[in-house]
C-alpha cells in the first residue's frame, strides 16, 4: 500500500475500534458462546473500504490480493463466504461510522445541500430481471442524465457542496425522488435539528406544492430550476453553477468507486457494497479534512 492508503487504513481502524469500545451494541450480533473471531469487526470494515478505494469488484480477487499485499496489516483473513457473511451483518456499524465521520468534518456544518439520485444497475438480461433475488425491489427505470434505460436501483444522495454524504437511501428505479427525500429527512430528525434553516439545491423533478410544503414545515428552503410554464424562481441565477456539483459527486461514485460494478446479487449484498462505497468516500473526505488538503473529495492519494 502507499503511505497515504496506509494512513487512511490505520486512522479508520482506530476510529471504528474506539467506537466499538465506547458503544459495544454497534458490533454485529454473534452467539455469546463460541470462538471469538480472529478478524475483528474494525478490521473487517476497514478491509471493505480499502477494497472500494482500490477498485476491487470481486471479493475473491480482493481477498487473494489482501493475503499477498496486506498480510502485515491483516495477518488473518477469512474465506470469501465468511467474509461476505460477516460484512452483510455489519451494515448497522457501517451506517454508524458514515454518520460519525461525516459529523467530525468541517463540511458537516455547511448550510447548503444538494439532492439527486443516480442509477445502480443490477443486471442487463431479461432472465436476470425475472430470476434475480433482487426482482421486485430492482426495477426498470430511465436515467435522463445519460439518456438510457436500466434495470436496478437508485442511490439517493443528500450531500454538502464539498461532496460529503449527509443522508442516503436505496430505492427501486421508479421510486419518486421527492418521496424518498422526504423519507430521508423524516428518518433523521437529529440531522435537521443540527442544521436549522437549511437550503437544498435540486433539479426540476423535485417539484410540487405538497412536497415544498413538507420541506417548509421542516424549515428547509428548496432551490430548483423553474419547470415549463412556471415563472423564474428566486435564486435560480445563483445556484445554477452549483447544480453540477451533485453530478460530479455521482461521477466520483461511478468512475472511481465503481458503484455500478458492485457485484451484489441479493438485497443484503447490494446494500453492504453500496454502503462500503459511501463509507469510503466519507472516510477520504474526513481524512483530507483533518490533514488540511485543499480538495476534500480527492481520492487520488488513496486509489492505488
Describe this structure in words.
With 304 residues, this protein is of the alpha/beta class. It has a domain at 108-264: Ribonuclease H-like superfamily/Ribonuclease H (Nucleotidyltransferase, domain 5, 2-Layer Sandwich). It has twelve helices and six strands. It has helices spanning 3-22, 41-53, 59-69, 80-88, 91-103, 126-131, 177-187, 189-193, 209-217, 236-239, 244-256, 267-290, and strands at residues 112-123, 139-143, 148-160, 165-172, 198-201, 220-223. Strand 2 (139-143) and strand 3 form a beta hairpin. The protein is globular and about 65 Å long.
Query: Distance between the terminal alpha carbons, to the nearest Å?
Result: 7 Å
Q: Averaging pLDDT over every residue, what do you get?
A: 91
Number of helices: 12
Judging by the overall fold, what is the CATH architecture of the domain at 108-264? 2-Layer Sandwich
Order of helices and strands: HHHHHEHEEEHHEHEHHH
